């Protein structure tokens, strides 16, 4: 069974000045995740490693460098899901956790619940001894400046997301040599969002879903639109009807655009190793690693390929 890792750095109007940084970032994260599989790790281990890499990279809107809410605070959401068991864990509105994807995995493995939010999630993190940081250390000077420029939620959605100032979600999907799939998604949400707002990234079937019977998906884009159409699960329903990963992704994204006028992007992998990276926004940074090759892109229809060193 071919092992595959695919990652994305968010579907939005990535400005030229960030283009190289986001592409380099997703390539590094994909290689990081794939190295876990090469060492015998599971798909679950691989997606966690890849997303942690992106959360630690201030170029992306997750963990360090996340966007700020209306009060000027960081509120982070994340989900992880194991396609073998359908086990899932998620956290929302956490403030001082640098790697919320790992806290989401702890929710999955150490509690009977699927989603913990805000103070409850932080109390759980303390109870298991998870490292925390002062919230201010997650805020970059650049994001503080951007927040000052866009002080209303309306501007955050209409100007920020649909023009060229927003950042967005990160995510990863993987299949390991045993045919097990997994997904993980993490985000700081929309700049200047209302305090307590939770988007798609923490919601099972929306920001991500994984099932060994069909595949794994991680979504990115306008969270409220993704929530309305349960985008991740919609893609897998198309795949269960025999459609390819790419066709299923395109159909679901087109439906979201027509039904609720929402734009976004997805990465998908099947248990057989078939994968896709599709989006309806201006750009989406993505990278995939399988066997001896690395693929990556940013523009629509773009796919570059590099051979991995032995």
The count of β-strands is: 13
How many domains is the backbone divided into?
1
- Assign the CATH topology: Glutamine Phosphoribosylpyrophosphate, subunit 1, domain 1
- The CATH level-2 architecture is identified as 4-Layer Sandwich
Backbone structural class? alpha+beta
For the CA atoms, what is the radius of gyration? 17 Å
Based on Cα principal axes, name the global outline.
Answer: globular
The average pLDDT is: 93
Distance between the termini: 20 Å
Could you give the order of the helices and strands?
EHHEEHEHHHEEEEHHHEEEEE
Task: Explain what the structure shows.
With 310 residues, this protein is an alpha+beta fold. The protein has one domain (4-307): 4-Layer Sandwich (Glutamine Phosphoribosylpyrophosphate, subunit 1, domain 1), CATH 3.60.20. Helix content is 35%, strand content 26%. The chain is built from 9 helices and 13 strands. It has helices at 16-38, 43-55, 100-110, 118-127, 141-149, 153-161, 223-229, 231-240, 245-260, and strands spanning 4-12, 76-82, 87-94, 115-117, 170-175, 181-187, 208-211, 215-221, 264-269, 275-279, 283-290, 293-299, 304-307. The strands form 2 sheets. A 9-stranded mixed beta sheet has the order 4-3-2-6-5-1-11-12-13. Strands 7-8-9-10 form a 4-stranded antiparallel beta sheet. A hairpin with a 2-residue loop joins β11 and β12 (293-299). α1 (16-38) runs antiparallel to α2, α2 (43-55) runs antiparallel to α3 (100-110) and α7 packs across α9. Residues 156-165 have low confidence and may be disordered. Substrate binds at residues 197-200, 220-223. The active site is at 169 (nucleophile). Belongs to the Ntn-hydrolase family.
């Amino acid at each position: 069974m071919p092992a595959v890792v695919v990652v994305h750095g968010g579907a939005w109007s990535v400005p030229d000045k960030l283009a190289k940084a986001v592409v380099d970032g997703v390539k590094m994260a994909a290689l990081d995740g794939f190295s876990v599989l090469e060492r015998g790790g599971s798909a679950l281990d691989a997606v966690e490693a890849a997303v942690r890499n992106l959360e630690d990279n201030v170029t992306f809107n997750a963990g360090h460098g996340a966007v700020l809410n209306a009060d000027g605070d960081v509120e982070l959401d994340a989900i992880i899901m194991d396609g073998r068991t359908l086990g899932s864990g998620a956290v929302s509105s956490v403030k001082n956790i640098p790697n919320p994807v790992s806290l989401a995995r702890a929710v999955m493995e150490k509690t009977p619940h699927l989603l913990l939010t805000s103070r409850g999630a932080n109390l759980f993190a303390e109870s298991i001894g998870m490292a925390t940081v002062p919230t201010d250390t997650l805020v970059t000077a650049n994001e503080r400046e951007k927040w000052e420029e866009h002080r209303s939620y309306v501007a955050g959605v209409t100007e920020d997301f649909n023009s060229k100032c927003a950042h967005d979600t990160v995510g990863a999907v993987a299949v390991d040599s045993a045919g097990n799939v997994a997904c993980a998604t993490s985000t700081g949400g929309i700049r200047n969002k209302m305090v307590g707002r939770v988007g798609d990234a923490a919601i099972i079937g929306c920001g991500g879903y994984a099932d060994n019977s069909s595949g794994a998906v991680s979504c990115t884009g306008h969270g409220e639109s993704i929530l309305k159409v349960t985008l991740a699960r919609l893609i897998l329903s198309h795949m269960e009807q025999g459609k390819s990963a790419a066709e299923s992704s395109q159909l679901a994204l087109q439906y979201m655009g027509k039904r609720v006028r929402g734009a976004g992007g997805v990465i998908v992998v099947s248990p057989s190793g078939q994968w896709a990276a599709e989006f309806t926004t201006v750009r989406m940074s993505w990278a995939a690693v399988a066997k001896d090759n690395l693929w990556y892109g940013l523009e629509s229809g773009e796919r570059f390929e590099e051979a991995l060193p032995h």
